[in-house]
Amino acid sequence: RIAVLGSTNMDLVAYTARAPGRGETVTGREFRTTPGGKGANQAVAAARAGGEVMMIGAVGDDVYGTRLREGLEHAGVDTDLLHTAEGPSGTAHIVVDDTGSNAIVVVPGANGVVTTLGPGEIAAIAASEILLMQLELPLSAAVEGSRAARAQGVRTILTPAPVQPLPDELLDHIDLLVPNEHEAAELSGQDEPHAAAQILLRRVPEVIVTLGAKGCLYAARGGEPVLFAAPSVTAVDTTGAGDTFVGTLAVALGEGRPVAEAVAFASSAAALCVQKPGASTSMPYRSEIEAV
Ligand code: ADP
């Protein structure tokens, strides 16, 4: 089983020719609401890829909360430990202009109340093979979750996004860190992925730096780094690629597959995701991943 300790957000996306300046109003062309949040996205990716997934976190007691929960359940994610908190759900307010550039305000809402874990959450983590975390919940929850996981020998995987300085009390309990190229550079002070990975290995035993269309770099303490190429595909929308990669990687690792095989599975899944528009809507099912 995979436990995801993370965020759920409703993405509210306005499409407009040109983003408004300060004090200005522009008329947009289109509006869409899509379920998101890195935690929920990774949970959906893992469930579609065949994982038994439990989501730990919180939605608000508003209409978005209901839809976010239903979306996860529809994907087959267990939401028994997804709490309903008083107040608004997490929201991401996104403006996309005709050049494809975006400006985003994320309001954590209910995600922000997940500062500590109860006995139910701790027990669920302890009963899992893998704990997936990102940084869209309060850091204190991630610290507690990772500590509980480590105490029970549960493998912990952290996506360090949104990127921020990471305290030892968190990294000391992380088995595998999966930053993208930008996050790896930010965390290590090294732009070059190999160099960045070597720095990060001082703090965690295994690192995978994802490199977009170039694939990913796997590095472990005491071993030679390995570069895995991504399948060559035509990308339409790379939103959710990183979350698809991590969610499906967790499924393969949870099945006891070696890293090289798990990375191949995750790379196939992420390559399928980028060929369709949207984030969670474009995540592939297991049969589709196995077909490529
Ligand atoms: P993020 O979405 O977090 O910024 P990346 O852009 O590094 O992360 O993408 C994560 C993974 O998704 C990559 O390691 C790769 O496997 C896959 N991927 C991303 N973009 C492409 C692409 N254009 N073609 C094929 N695979 C891709």
TrEMBL record:
Q: Which cofactor does it need?
A: Mg(2+)
Which parts of the sequence bind ATP? 180, 210-215, 242-243
**GO MF annotation, one:** ribokinase activity
Whether Thylakoid counts among this entry's keywords is: no
EC primary class: transferase
Assigned EC number: 2.7.1.15
The record's annotation in SUPFAM superfamilies points to: Ribokinase-like (SSF53613)
Q: Spell out the InterPro entries in the cross-references.
A: PfkB_dom, Ribo/fructo_kinase, Ribokinase, Ribokinase-like
What keywords are assigned to this protein?
ATP-binding, Carbohydrate metabolism, Cytoplasm, Kinase, Magnesium, Metal-binding, Nucleotide-binding, Potassium, Transferase
Q: How is its activity regulated?
A: Activated by a monovalent cation that binds near, but not in, the active site. The most likely occupant of the site in vivo is potassium. Ion binding induces a conformational change that may alter substrate affinity.
State where substrate binds. 9-11, 37-41, 136, 243
Q: List positions binding K(+).
A: 237, 239, 273, 276, 278, 282
Where does it live in the cell? Cytoplasm
Q: Which residues form the Carbohydrate kinase PfkB domain?
A: 1-284
This protein's major location comes to cytoplasm
**What interactions and quaternary structure are annotated?**
Homodimer.
Q: Which family, according to UniProt?
A: Belongs to the carbohydrate kinase PfkB family. Ribokinase subfamily.
Q: What PANTHER family does the database record attribute to this sequence?
A: RIBOKINASE, SUGAR KINASE
Described function: Catalyzes the phosphorylation of ribose at O-5 in a reaction requiring ATP and magnesium. The resulting D-ribose-5-phosphate can then be used either for sythesis of nucleotides, histidine, and tryptophan, or as a component of the pentose phosphate pathway.
* NCBIfam families, A to Z: D_ribokin_bact
Q: What is this protein called?
A: Ribokinase
User: What's the encoding gene here?
Assistant: rbsK
